[in-house]
Design goal:
The longest helix has 10 residues, at 78-87. The chain has a single domain (2-102), classed as HSP40/DNAj peptide-binding domain (Sandwich). With 104 residues, it is an alpha+beta fold. It has helices at residues 24-29, 78-87; strands spanning 2-6, 9-12, 15-22, 32-37, 40-45, 53-60, 67-74, 93-99, 101-102. Helices cover 15% and strands 52% of the residues. The chain is built from two helices and nine strands.
């Protein structure tokens, strides 16, 4: 069962998924990715690639359970969507892990 527990934040059993939408240029300009969890702001190093969807398992930082995954979604233009629809390309789904540190 998927429960929405906050804007862009969903719980499934003992996992929490925090979704963030990124434009490629903003993603590449960022040194770290920040997210809010239980009243605190946390940061993880930016992965090397964004992909179309990138699941980042937060392996250290906020106490578990639950386990936290950032879900990075690449923002696409309508032209990119049309090319994908008619071109038959498959989305690039990536996975990585990162330790988080409290920043506020």
């Amino acid at each position: 069962v998927l429960d929405r527990i906050a804007p862009d934040t969903y719980a499934v059993e003992d996992r929490v998924f925090i979704e963030q939408t990124w434009r490629e240029r903003d993603f590449l300009a960022a040194d770290e990715l920040r997210f809010r969890w239980v009243g605190r702001t946390w940061a993880v190093p930016r992965p090397a690639e964004l992909g179309d969807v990138h699941f980042v398992w937060v392996s250290e930082g906020p106490p578990a359970p639950p386990e936290i995954e950032l879900v990075l979604v690449r923002s696409r233009s309508w032209l990119e969507d049309a090319k994908r629809l008619f071109g038959g390309s498959r989305p690039r789904v990536l996975e990585s892990q990162a330790g988080a540190r409290a920043v506020g």
